[in-house]
């Protein structure tokens, strides 16, 4: 059966979330920065929307330089925990489309805003069906999260990853095996996923400009320059060969939920009611995959849109709602006692996930 892999990449993720949260930002250049705090624009650009990119602003650029390129742009600080909570929901959507949705073995999150999905069995190797599934994913994310993504479909992770960048934003590109060479070979070697600037520079010095040049180059020569492992990989990648499996990355996954309170408040009873619903949702996701957790993180966003987070790490894995609420309520109580500004949104997230073993409750110990 022909293998089929999807790569889903959220479009300008952090900036898109900020636009969604504040409709007044629509149509403006949005730059999300990792600020150092030394001065107003001391730090680096984390991401920006496409309007800002038209000014030449790019990720990794200093915020001060970005300001010079577009003085009218809106500069916002990174709200990583908030973005992570949105990412958690999106990743749950993606996981539901994989061949092994219960175990997560056919799902691989590679960053906060992108993931691979193995859908070989689900599609029966049919790339037309894969296109339909990719479209369903895009529509569900847009419907539930009001965000767009770009999807690449290929016969392996390498091709799917490269395909997802062809029609950004909000596109879908299918590269079936019969279209592989026409898609891959005209591209510059620097476009091959896994090749950095140093390697690309060395290849160009060897007269290798396009991926086709690389595919046709003598593998012995490549090995002599880059070593056996890297040389063979370069030759295979240029031919679109990638046997690496789609599999979950242990230790980095988290599950969380965040929601807006009915009104801005510091009333612990109102806040606890929402916290209870969020915890129930998180536990249901854990139950569906037979997972336990060791870390609990609570996030609050106040009426001035300032965000605060606190975490606790337990000395053993647990998976009951009672255990989650006990820790989350303790953290929430600290937030309420310390704050003089009403809360607007709250979230709860669990991490250090693993398959369940032993007792499930803190009270069992």
TrEMBL record:
It is found in: Cytoplasm. Its cofactor is Mg(2+). GO terms for biological process: DNA repair; DNA-templated DNA replication; error-prone translesion synthesis. GO terms for cellular component: cytoplasm. Mg(2+) binds at residues 9, 113. GO terms for molecular function: damaged DNA binding; DNA-directed DNA polymerase activity; magnesium ion binding. Coiled coil: none annotated. It comes from the Archaea. Residues 5-196 form the UmuC domain. Poorly processive, error-prone DNA polymerase involved in untargeted mutagenesis. Copies undamaged DNA at stalled replication forks, which arise in vivo from mismatched or misaligned primer ends. These misaligned primers can be extended by PolIV. Exhibits no 3'-5' exonuclease (proofreading) activity. May be involved in translesional synthesis. This is DNA polymerase IV.
């Amino acid at each position: 059966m022909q293998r089929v892999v999807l790569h889903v990449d959220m479009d300008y993720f952090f900036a898109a979330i900020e636009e969604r949260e504040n409709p007044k930002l629509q149509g403006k250049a949005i730059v999300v920065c990792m600020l150092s705090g030394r001065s107003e624009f001391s730090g680096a650009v984390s991401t920006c929307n496409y309007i800002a990119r038209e000014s030449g602003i790019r990720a990794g650029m200093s915020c001060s330089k970005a300001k010079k390129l577009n003085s009218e742009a809106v500069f916002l600080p990174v709200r990583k925990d908030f973005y992570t909570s949105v990412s958690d929901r999106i990743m749950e959507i993606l996981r539901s489309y994989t061949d092994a949705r219960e175990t997560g073995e056919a799902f691989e999150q590679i960053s906060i805003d992108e993931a691979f999905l193995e859908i070989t069995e689900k599609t029966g190797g049919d790339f037309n069906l894969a296109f339909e599934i990719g479209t369903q994913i895009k529509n569900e994310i847009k419907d539930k999260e009001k965000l767009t993504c770009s999807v690449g479909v290929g016969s392996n992770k390498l091709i799917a990853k490269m395909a997802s960048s062809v029609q950004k934003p909000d596109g879908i590109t299918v590269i079936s095996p019969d279209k592989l060479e026409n898609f891959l070979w005209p591209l510059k070697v620097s476009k091959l996923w896994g090749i950095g600037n140093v390697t690309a520079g060395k290849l160009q010095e060897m007269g290798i400009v396009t991926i086709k040049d690389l595919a046709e180059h003598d593998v012995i020569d490549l090995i002599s320059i880059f070593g056996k492992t890297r040389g063979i990989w370069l030759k295979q990648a240029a031919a679109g060969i990638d046997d690496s499996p789609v599999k979950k990355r242990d230790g980095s996954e988290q599950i969380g939920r965040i929601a807006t309170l009915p009104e801005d408040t510091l009333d612990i009873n109102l806040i606890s009611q929402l916290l209870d619903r969020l915890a129930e949702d998180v536990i249901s996701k854990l139950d569906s995959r037979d997972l336990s957790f060791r870390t609990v993180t609570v996030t609050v966003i106040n009426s001035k849109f300032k965000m605060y987070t606190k975490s606790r790490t337990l000395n053993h894995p647990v998976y009951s709602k009672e255990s989650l609420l006990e820790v989350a309520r303790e953290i929430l109580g600290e937030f309420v006692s310390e704050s003089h500004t009403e809360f607007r949104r709250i979230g709860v997230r669990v991490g250090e996930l693993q398959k369940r073993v032993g007792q499930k409750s803190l009270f069992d110990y």
